[in-house]
Amino acid sequence: MPKTNYKDLEKKLTMQKRNAWEVWDEKTKQSAFKFSEGYKKFLNKSKTEREAVSSSIELARQSGFKDMAAVKSLKAGDKVYAVNRDKNLFLAKIGKKPLGRGFNMVMPHIDSPHLDLKVVPLYEDESLAFLKTHYYGGIKKYQWPTIALALHGQVYLENGKKVEINIGEKDSDPIFMITDLLPHIDRHGAPGAKVELRDVQGEDLNLVVGSIPVKDEKVKEKVKLAILEYLWNEYGMKEIDLASAELHAVPCEKARDLGFDRSLISAFGQDDLICAYAALMSIIESKVGEKTQILAMVDREEIGSAGNTGANSYYLETFVSDLSELVDGEDDLDHVYKIFAKSQAISADVTAGLDPDYKDAFDVRNACRLGFGLAIEKYTGHGGKYSTSEASGKFLRGLITLYNKNKDIIYQLAGGMGKIDKGGGGTIAKYLANRNMEVIDAGVPLFNMHAPLEISSKADLYCAYLAYKTFIEN
Ligand code: MN
Ligand code: MN
């Protein structure tokens, strides 16, 4: 009997986590760096879901995608887009087979945790004017005071006019800030006790917006009135218009390279714009496939995907029905659900990267690492796999086999986020699974997820792009 070479056997039988930077040659590394330049530009123009829709349309139109509403019929190779309420963008690249044979879809979300203005936000206290906010999505509240914030969004005036607001992005713009107490008088217990973290409450997240009063003794709230006078002169707004305004407070900081080697990116909104950009570029640059390719950018994921622009909205049915009418000449709902049953999707969302400073929160064997490629998660959820879908073994195995054919697609396999029973998180996968589609979660691991600035690896961004492209083409 020949002696077994256990080194070879180990290589053949065991699963190793692979660092993309170690596997890739110089050319692929440079491609990844180049790809991240476009991503940073995209991030800086896309701090709200509306902005993500318009900057994505711009890129799609540049590469020949046409407004689906202006199209009479569709054939293989045609490229179209459709917008829902300025907050969803769906793209399709028509395949060679009828749509009735199913489609390949990638669905990222384009909303990110941030602060919304309250319905009645403006008030005055101790000769300062403030705007009250209501946090959107899961945030650690203490992370938001003392950072520079910008206001983005729109206001609808009495005369029907819509006013776009974007203050705090240009160097010459003013910024806004939530305050915090100095450490000197924030000690708990005996004098000299250590400074303890103040438990910042939702009602503490108030933006300072001004301090000069109007000069009139008869007016009670002089600073508040001065702010209203400014808003009236600048935008034609009254206090009531703040109620119907859609204004987000978001970090002013631009996307930046992080680290001596520039391998990482720091930016606001990478959950989930990193997957959204990778998916957008994948459908822009994909080859026409047998099956139709769809990119669906959804909103409201951070607050449960409910609402007419979330993954749970029937807009997906409407879009597929419209597409089916233009491709197959059939638009009834029964046909749409038959298409869903033959379709497969990637729920493209970020996951937690294994942070060495907080290792005890993770099962290190089932955790994803920054730089180790696309994180493919068989399931997400919390506790006993609550409130989640789980990809079928067959679908997952097929995806792995597909990715193994391209040596530059580095991926890592995981399930759940963090240790069992220590928390968790959901994605939109279940809403697609409920529609009887095959679906799996695959995205990019981040540090600081949901913080004002999140960290990603350029390697993982590029792997996500390559992987989404390969998935929709096949
Ligand atoms: Mn997400
Ligand atoms: Mn999130």
* Bound molecule types: manganese (II) ion
What's the CATH topology label of the largest domain?
Answer: Aminopeptidase
Overall shape: globular
Strand order of the largest sheet: 1-2-3-14-4-15-21-17-19
Q: State the helicity in percent bands.
A: 25-40%
Number of helical regions? 12
Supply the number of structural domains: 2
Summarize the topology:
Layout: H1 6-13, H2 20-23, H3 26-44, H4 49-62, E1 66-67, E2 79-84, E3 88-93, E4 103-107, E5 114-125, E6 128-136, E7 149-156, E8 162-167, E9 177-178, E10 206-210, H5 222-235, H6 239-243, E11 246-251, E12 256-258, E13 264-267, H7 270-285, E14 292-297, H8 315-327, H9 333-341, E15 344-347, E16 351-352, E17 374-377, E18 381-382, H10 393-404, E19 411-414, E20 424-425, H11 429-433, E21 438-443, E22 445-446, E23 454-457, H12 458-473
Helix pairs in contact: 3-12, 4-7, 7-12, 8-9
The site of one manganese (II) ion (MN) has 6 residues, from α7.
What report would you give on this structure?
It contains twelve helices and 23 strands. The two termini are about 45 Å apart. It has helices at about 5-15, 20-25, 25-45, 50-60, 220-235, 240-245, 270-285, 315-325, 335-340, 395-405, 430-435, 460-474; strands spanning about 65, 80-85, 90-95, 105, 115-125, 130-135, 150-155, 160-165, 175-180, 205-210, 245-250, 255-260, 265, 290-295, 345, 350, 375, 380, 410-415, 425, 440-445, 445, 455. It is globular, with a radius of gyration of 24 Å. A nine-stranded mixed beta sheet has the order 1-2-3-14-4-15-21-17-19, with helices on both faces. Strands 8-7-11-5-6-10-9 form a seven-stranded antiparallel beta sheet. Strands 12-13-23 form a three-stranded antiparallel beta sheet. By secondary structure, it is an alpha/beta fold. Helix 3 (about 25-45) packs across helix 12 and helix 8 (about 315-325) crosses helix 9 (about 335-340). It has two domains: about 15-110 and about 270-474, Aminopeptidase; about 115-250, Aminopeptidase i, Domain 2, CATH 2.30.250. The longest helix has 19 residues, at about 25-45. The structure holds manganese (II) ion (2 copies).
